[in-house]
Design brief:
This protein has 137 residues and is mainly α. 39% of the residues lie in helices and 0% in strands. The protein has two domains: 43 residues, no CATH class; 65 residues, 30s Ribosomal Protein S18 (Irregular), CATH 4.10.640.10.
């Protein structure tokens, strides 16, 4: 077999492209998972249909920031009901891990809570710790 015949044989094995734009996509696409049939893949290359998806390595999915999801641009210090959700039962500002807020909104939250505390809209300490004198000797 000569080189030309060898090239012609390999061209016959390649499936013909349906459109001009698809020819370049076919060449760059990953090889199909099923060599005998058409390529069935879902989003991001995951197999579609009844096949099992591979398990995630990291475990849980990262939660989305509440304020980003609701498209809140400014955290208002006067919105006490909203700010109370981000204060622990002892009166401390909750961490980002617990509040699931992004860094930008966590900074805004802490500033708003501090302003509300300064104006006596929010307590510095928990109600049950004020009269007990815990921490003082």
């Amino acid at each position: 077999m000569t080189e030309r015949e060898n090239d012609a044989a390999t061209e016959d094995e390649i499936e013909p492209a349906t459109a001009v734009g698809d020819a370049a996509a076919e060449e760059t696409a990953a090889p199909s998972r099923r060599p005998d049939g058409p390529r069935f893949e879902g989003p991001r290359g995951a197999p579609a249909g009844d096949e099992e998806r591979p398990r995630r390595r990291m475990g849980r999915r990262r939660r989305v920031c509440i304020m980003c999801a609701d498209k809140i641009k400014v955290v208002d210090y006067k919105n006490v009901g909203f700010l109370r959700r981000f204060i622990s039962d002892r009166g401390r500002i909750e961490t980002r891990r617990k509040t699931s807020a992004c860094a930008k909104h966590q900074r805004a939250l802490s500033n708003a809570i501090k302003r509300a505390r300064h104006l006596a809209l929010l307590p510095y300490t928990a109600e049950h710790l004020r009269g007990a004198g815990v921490g003082h000797r």
